[in-house]
UniProtKB/TrEMBL annotation:
Species of origin: Lepraria finkii
Lineage top rank: taxon: Eukaryota
Pfam family, one: DIOX_N
Swiss-Prot/TrEMBL keywords: Iron, Metal-binding, Oxidoreductase
Family in the record: Belongs to the iron/ascorbate-dependent oxidoreductase family.
SUPFAM superfamilies in the cross-refs: Clavaminate synthase-like (SSF51197)
Protein name per the record: Fe2OG dioxygenase domain-containing protein
UniProt cross-references to PANTHER family, sorted A to Z: 2-OXOGLUTARATE (2OG) AND FE(II)-DEPENDENT OXYGENASE SUPERFAMILY PROTEIN-RELATED
InterPro entries named among the record's database cross-references: DIOX_N, IPNS-like_FE2OG_OXY, IPNS-like_sf, Iron_ascorbate_oxido_reductase, Oxoglu/Fe-dep_dioxygenase_dom
Domain Fe2OG dioxygenase stretches: 174-278
Coiled-coil residues: none
Length: 320
């Protein structure tokens, strides 16, 4: 079998969200568990996020990214204590990559009135656009995909034999950032430059929307040591596990490397919602884990050099 024949499974979540019999839920739990063990990635339909809302989000993203550069610069995430707002193209360079990512991004997260815990909680930055042209559809979409991320956590818990109720101790005030992304045409990138270079996601569950018909995502298959192409299908989300899930599951669930090469004509949009959990939460996949590192401690370990963290704010979260 060639790599072209390897396809990430597409799982219908309606069997879990609206089961017609108890076996429906068990089937979805098994499918998610097996895909997370084998690939660390899978696709879902029947997820409950309206197609019209997905389309509204993409329209809103175009409204945002087509603003003048001067307007976006005023919303730079570098000037925001919560790292919310605009990330210009070329600002993300991973260690070992010869060139920065070609992508442009805009970040939102939970809407909290004040900045807390090194900026992991706080207010969002909103562009000067009409409510219906950005903030309203983006926030509705954020809430829907945040709920979907929590549902995937519930399923992952059950896949390891844990009761779904554990998620309630893990999700009182979860950290759920969302990243809206625009990729330039491949013809506009430098030789050897990626939309996003190869990486693993840091934390929990990632819920990814790809602009339908505009392919670009590739997932590394360890067994074959080759990249799996993941087509951008309408009304189908791509789900993956991050490093924290791999660590907390004792390696039962994988965190796979992935990258983006814009294969479409013209620009390409995508949007990723990252569902991590509460800042002081410990491992729900194995409540008996002797390692009591919290999500906040792991976030500090991974991102302290990217955030403007004072000693006092780090002490609030704790250092792993």
């Amino acid at each position: 079998m060639s790599t072209d024949d390897i396809v990430l499974p597409i799982i219908d979540l309606s069997g879990y969200l609206a089961p017609k019999c108890p076996e429906d839920r068990e089937q979805v739990i098994t499918q998610v568990r097996d895909a997370s063990r084998q690939y660390g990635f899978f696709q879902v339909r029947g997820h409950g996020v309206p197609l019209s809302l997905q389309q509204d989000l993409l329209r809103s993203m175009n409204n945002l990214f087509n603003l003048p550069k001067e307007e976006k610069l005023k919303m730079s995430f570098l000037e925001n204590p919560c790292r919310r707002g605009d990330e210009a193209a070329g600002m993300s360079l991973r260690e070992g990559d010869p060139l920065p990512d070609a992508k442009e991004c805009f970040y939102v997260a939970r809407e909290d009135p004040i900045v807390e815990f090194s900026g992991f909680y706080g207010p969002n930055v909103w562009p000067n656009l009409l409510e219906d042209d950005f903030r309203s559809p983006v926030w509705s979409y954020y809430e829907q995909t945040s709920q979907l991320g929590k549902t995937i956590w519930l399923i992952l818990l059950q896949g390891l034999g844990q009761p779904p109720a554990l998620v309630e101790n893990f999700a009182k005030r979860p950290i759920v950032p969302m990243k809206m992304i625009r990729y330039p045409p491949q013809s506009a990138t430098l030789s050897g430059q990626f939309g996003i270079g190869a990486h693993t996601d840091f934390g929990g569950v990632t819920v990814l929307l790809q602009q339908p018909g505009k392919d670009g995502l590739e997932v590394w298959h360890e067994g074959r040591e080759e990249w799996i192409h993941v087509p951008a299908l309408e009304d189908v989300y791509v789900i993956n596990c991050g490093d924290m899930i791999q660590r907390w599951s004792g390696g039962a669930y994988k965190s796979a490397r992935h990258r983006v090469i814009n294969k479409a004509d013209g620009e390409r949009l995508s949007c990723a919602t990252f569902w991590h959990g509460d800042i002081h939460a410990t491992n729900p996949l194995n409540p008996d884990d002797p390692n009591r590192e919290t999500i906040g401690q792991l976030l500090v370990k991974r991102f302290r050099n990217q955030y403007s963290m004072t000693k006092e704010s780090i002490a609030q979260v704790g250092v792993a």
